[in-house]
Amino acid sequence: MGNKENxxxxxxxxxxxxxxLQGYHGTGVKQIIxxxxxxxGSLYYYFPDGKxxxxxxxxxxxAHFIKNKIxxxxxxxxxxxxxxxxxxxxxxxxxxxKLRIEGVPIAAVALETSLISEPLRKVCQAAYNDFQDQFTxxxxxxxxxxxxxxxxxxxxxxxxxxxxxxxxxSGDAEPLLLVADQIPMLLQQ
Length: 189
Known about the structure:
Radius of gyration: 18 Å
Organism: Cytobacillus horneckiae
Number of helices: 9
Pfam families: TetR_C_13_2, TetR_N
Largest sheet: none
Domain HTH tetR-type: 5-65
Keywords: DNA-binding, Transcription, Transcription regulation
DNA-binding region: 28-47
């Protein structure tokens, strides 16, 4: 049983990395199998619906990791301004060290597939909803009104996602740092 779980996990992790680097359409099933060092039949054994099902699992894995990182970071400080800024500073540092090379986790799949695959669009949407919900919950804990907290959760997530995209394009974390600088003004009550 351990080998089956290990093969499936290797396929998902390899696919996640390749989708981030090359996009959904730039990544082939053969490459995923080869780079994961998995037996040829294992991909369709674990993912009978093929590449799309594997991409859904990859997005879910990445989204779960990111959601937990956001939650963990936001819990370090009671003050929502400080906690959100701290999260963005962590992201900027991570970007400088690693993401600049590895790509944007969910955006590549979302942009490439949202018009052609409803299941992938939905899983990407759910991931982004989970991210913004973390910000909303933090603001609710700080006594923001529910509607305002929801709107700001969306805006904060949009700002971070946009900053990631521009940071990735420019190869520089400055856009993320600029977003962090705007959080105090955005969250004034």
